[in-house]
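Q: Predict the bound structure with guanosine-5'-triphosphate.
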Amino acid sequence: MSEDNDEVSDLRFKRVLLKISGEALMGTSEYGIHMPTCLKFAEEIAAARELGAEICLVIGGGNIFRGLAGAANGMERSQADSMGMMATIMNALAMQSALETIGVQTRVQSGIRMDEICEPFIRRRAIRHMEKGRVVIFAAGTGNPYFTTDTGAALRAAEMHCDAMMKGTQVDGVYSADPKSNPDAVRYDTLTYQDVLARDLRVMDASAVSLMRDTNIPIVVFSLHNKGALQDVLTGKGPSTIISGK
Ligand code: GTP
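A: Predicted complex:
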């Protein structure tokens, strides 16, 4: 068996969708896109790809515009959500740029047609891109208002037949209480979809968790802040909380 195949067999999940919040791209800034932070995430993704993982990405848009906040300020909700979806396209293009800077092949596919700047979402084509080792970045959520990028991520993970949805957050899993304010908070190693929904643990939107439950795709909550974190969780070494049916 080749060295490559050995590495692939070490992977706990081969094809994954990585969900990153838009705010994570702000890095130390208060707004917008911090390219050194995008590059840091790009390096994490490149390292995970070298292990043989097939990776697709969904990035939120909250660092630029949040549909809900726009609606709260009096904007019509669908209109505000359209602006939020456009924010996710900006983030997708920034991450594409960061990944390509370090030599990772990428394709951006958008749920809203923007043919001059990226491909439209075509499921079978996206799968082909991933099989060829390209990182596919899905932009514009589901392409519809009233949905979040969490739900968009769950939908794409299901459509791509991903083995897991990796949710990169500020902390390394789901805790019994806020670990920043409560030193007694403990991290759960595993939870069921039902635990998350019934106890309203707010890991992701309920609709995203339900879709992952219906399609039986585990959600892996981990921190993207430590170097090598994505590689570690993909090989079952790093701290995380795995949400599944069992
Ligand atoms: P293979 O045919 O599998 O090699 O995939 P490919 O993506 O390289 O093929 P294609 O020749 O279709 O695409 C070449 C480049 O054009 C890639 O960078 C695509 O992302 C880009 N591209 C393809 N379709 C569109 C589109 O509708 N809009 C934009 N803006 N770019 C596109």
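A: Residues 1-7 have pLDDT under 50 and may be disordered.
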